[in-house]
Queue: 4 jobs
Job 1
Amino acid sequence: MIKYIGSKRLLVPTLVAMVRECEGVERVIDLFSGTSRVGSALKQSGYRVWANDYAHYAHTIATCYVQADAARWEAPAQRLLDELSRLPPAAGWFTAQFCERARYVHPDNGARVDAIREHIATLDLEPELEAIALVALMEAADRVDSTTGVQMAYLKQWAKRAHKQLELRLPKLSSGTGRATRGDALDLARSGALEADLIYLDPPYNQHAYLGNYHVWESLVLWDKPELYGVANKRIDCKTRKSPFNSKRKIHAAMAEIIAHARAKWILVSFNNEGYISREEMVALLATRGEVEVVERPFERYVGAKIGIYSPAGEKVGRVSHTKNKEFVFKVRLAQ
């Protein structure tokens, strides 16, 4: 899967174990699915998973890892990837914007991305097959990118991996089916749709918006070739597609509304001590629905915190305050 700030890769075993401890759970909603690490792990553990996210790239990832059934799609997906891998490079919009004007991917690999993505756009693929192809392309580009893991900036010099040849690999699909949707979490809550045995919440938690951090993947998936701005060459809609969960002023009310509208036996919330809601405040919000249990784990901060703070000229200009966080998992059995 792609490099992702806030990834639950190391926390997945803990989360799956906590879900297993919850009685009567068959259906799970992963409301802010991101890279679908958690949703995919729960699907593999035998749960019926509905993965949702507002970002198009995240919805595509969920369609690949949660909705698609390996038994149905593995063979045709491999044939498609073999076909795409044989395409000759053809530099185009992606290369111009993200390899030359910005330097996220080396132009040699950018030309391959352009050729593959343009070809996918000409095919009338079923949603699952298209998602698998797009995720394979996204992950291939991620393996040869020249960033520290987010797309707010790129390295001054090409990373060593950027010179490796882009290689399409079949995503590790899992058997069975799930559901993937792209929707606003608050809209879903207000509509009464949040009904399952367990609802897992891993929302954005501070000012860092996922759309801004992964705008290249959003443009690659949408292939809408939007207006871009700034040194990072971000999509213009990064200025307008805002989430209340990235607002210190709005996040408490948004979280309270999600919790109030949840129709489930259990709620599981993943958050950390860099979030706009403190441990004590989260416990108070969740306690309106039932008794709260909290598990705390040490967690490494995003890799950029270890590298340091630099100016646009590449000069070190600041000191990182800390390199470790505390990750909290809150579990609530809702009062009936």
Job 2
Amino acid sequence: MGETEYSYGKLHIDSRYPYVYETHLHTSQASACARATGAEMARACHKAGYTGIMVTDHFFYGNSCIDRSLPWQEWVEQFCKGYEDAKAEGDRIGLAVFFGWEANYDGTEFLIYGLDKEWLLDHPEVKDVTVEEQYYLVRDAGGLVVHCHPYRDEAYIPAVRIFPDYIDAVEGVNATHSCKKSRGHNRPEFDVRAQEYAARFHLPMTAGSDIHGTDLLFGGIACAQKLQDVHDYVRLLKSAKGLAVEDCPYRLLDGNESC
């Protein structure tokens, strides 16, 4: 059919979907469980062949390393440092870097995209809203809510809970579950159930590595068109609502083609 595939570094690239984005990434500057700075993560992902990354550090009630007793403005400034360092390094080396965060509700977690630091500074209430209130607050500001690893079953998650009416998409592939190289949460059935969840409620799916260090798992999404900013990602997912996976304008990556 004239289609070619090639490898760039360790990341497998399909020429039909040449623009690859890591959508779920943590930095040690804001996430207590991470092992590398934003700049280090940017360099590793660029070397592996990613077009861009989305920094989604653990938010206020998640596994954050930022002192919660700080005034809100100072807390936000520190929280954004990993992203800002990744962005500065990305601008230097030619890697797109987008901003997001991972909100925690007693072990149930959501990835938020499409909002920025200024929005956070202006909305301190976001840290204390309910799941339902979060959805409307984020949606009304033009953002996107993704239920990440919804069926992960670990000691730190008291119960699996789903919120199909208060999300825009489901993380159908999390490379820590699916990639053979993963050393944690390596249970592919978690993703099988997540994909069934998305299909049952006609929700679009996304994929990410949930990466915490430079030992990359090579998950994410591969797009036919380059994303110019995080709002392109929001539009991309919203345009996929109700579509079967094979009809989506992007591919989900589980990392196994590359690792």
Job 3
Amino acid sequence: MSDIVYTARIELHGHIIDSLTLPRVFSAIMADGESDFEVEEFTIGRHKTDSSYARIAITTPHQSRLNELLDELRLVGAEVVDDTLAEFVEADLDGVFPDHFYATTNLQTSVRLADGWYEVHRQEMDCGLRLDPNSKQVECLPMHWVRRGDLIAVGKHGIRVVPLERARNRELFEFMGSTVSSEKPKKLLIDGIANEIREIKAHGGKVLLVAGPAIIHTGVGVYLSEIITAGYIDVLFAGNALALHDLENAVYGTSLGVSLLQGKNIEGGHEHHLRTVNTIRRHGSIRAAVEAGYITSGVMHDCVKHGVDFILAGSIRDDGPLPDVITDMIVAQDAMRKKIVGVKIAIMISTMLHSIATGNVLPADVKTVCVDINPATVTKLADRGSHQALGLVTDVESFLRELRNALVG
């Protein structure tokens, strides 16, 4: 057996103990029976707000295994001391990354250039990294944005990520993140969400609501309207269904033909949503229908009246659809990317597909709350990379009623 060993050194910075970065590093090294480590320097923060530092030497008998291990450790926040610079190569086709391109996460990322580390702009998962050689700006870009000649990062050398850190205080989001369970004090949590929203608004941040049609079907659109009117929502992401059923209710008092006051099917009600979408299409847009006085109430009416930006992304099952619905999914994704600038908290209510789609474009530092009666919605969102998503398992009616009471009174 060869006595040759291969060595590399890594550094860890930040709250590496309570955020479990250090244990993850040790676990990854020890998982390989042939690899070993030595902690060469270790400084522990003396107070809860202080950062810690560790310098660790890793040895393995195989260079290939060392390279694999370093790639794994970069993903949990390790900085390789003698790492080479990030490598960029030109894309040879529009809409295609080069082979071996670096695939991003939603965690804040930096790349090492000749004169130091540069933070990546517009952080987003499942993208590549493009370098502007003149400004030295590096940004995430989705595959369809690639143009021939773009400089795209390849490999994992010279790239580091910042893992999510545990909250410094025993606050709402730490408590919510412990488990996905229906057995939590919901009013306490909703009051905490309301406080987060107020704090974010007070500091100029934006609030994003991702909403499913159950909000309208259950008759609680009125609570959402009050929250919008009070100025607590800046951006709305939804589909054709929420908007159309809300508009149907504004015109006929029904949602999919069911009276929201009487709770029963109305004769001929099955036609209401089609007649509504037809008339809105005749007006040309939801805004035009509101300004013409055809729509005088409801969620979409209040979005128009109070300057709330909305993106309606279509699906194969849509009736109509409404003229505001974006039917090209790539166009819809890009529209969502533009509207999340400045968003500090996202509230996702009763819409699995729109929640996952939104999670895909949000950076990990955006506080994200997923509200659904089905706990699988929350876990699926996290499984697809939105690890910052925290869940509240409850029905939409009680959530919006309590949130409205906490925000509006």
Job 4
Amino acid sequence: MLRKKCLAAMSAAIMLFCSCAEMTDENHTQQEVLPDTATQKQEQQTTTTQKYTSVTEQQAAEANAEPQTETRVHFLCAGDNLIHDNIYMEALELGGGEKYDFSSMYDEVRPYIQKADIAVLNQETLVNSAFPASTYPVFSTPVEDGDAVTDLGFNVISMSNNHVLDYGSEGLISSLDYWDSKDVVHYGAYRDEEDSENIRIKEVNGITFAFLGYMEHTNGNSLASDGPGKVVYLKEEDVIERQIKKADEMADVVVVSCHFGTEIKHELNEQQIDMAPKLAEWGADLIIGTQAHCTSTCGTIDRSDGSKAFCYYGLGNFFHTMWDAISAVGYMGDLDIVKDPNGVVRFENIKAIPVVSHFEDTGAEFWTNCKVYPYSKYTDELISRSGAIGMSREAMEDCLSCIPDEYLSIE
């Protein structure tokens, strides 16, 4: 499915005579230019014989060695972890009023996250210690929620979303400080310009991943040009193209998170339709879309060189307490990424596994029993207790209808 990445394992000698045929970008092609003299040509021929003799010996040794096998990474990505007041107030109650305890709220989806080698979460709200907990329209989330999702198994955090500047540079830096204290890769928001050019790389099972994140907007908030903090907007296409092409040279798989889409609309908007193919052409292999707070389609994108990328255009919400049924259903992207002995990477077993955010309106100060469930375990009895307006099996099935049958996986 993906373009073959040129392997550095070839010796420098062979590179004088062989080019990486799979590469299509000019930046991937190197040519050796030798002075055209008879003496140097004779030396070149002698050296060539020595090089090919060495290759033959190496090939013979490899033939007697254990055969190389494919390597595999199980990859998962989840949508918006959108921590409303109902969630953190109940977490405080669960913690006995002295601390926040979010852990049980994620219990039902724990097995899906923990079986992944790489699990990416779009953390929609600022997890930080600089500001007290707050809810829509300006979010601040206790660090205990970050502890809960990392304990759950999320090891890559996207901060590319419209709420990342809700508390300006101070909130952003405090959140970066928190994620720096955890054993995770985080991306999509940065300390400064230099940090934004430091492409995040993670290697698992011999497969390298690069992570980049961009957002459509930040709710009208911006950073001072001479102050701390840096984000990159989707309109900055020259920066995005340059960064993706750089990442493509560094990693087997380039993952790009895009906070785009029209809120509470399943249908793709003009920006999604226009931008996703550009990202793929520049080198993005897997595109993770968030922002709409409801499900959107997913599928392959053809590149001009004949290879393909894959795009989850809109995962919807992972966990939240938005009040309408259309927002209640999201899905997790789930797939295997396989690299063969020749360095060719492909995607297998691509899935969209739906999840449902549950809460109950019992007339108390805040909604209770907040929890995220896999759709397969969301019973009719839970539907009857849901506080979401218009919640029904039919409403949920309508949310899932935008996901192609070949990827939809109820499990």
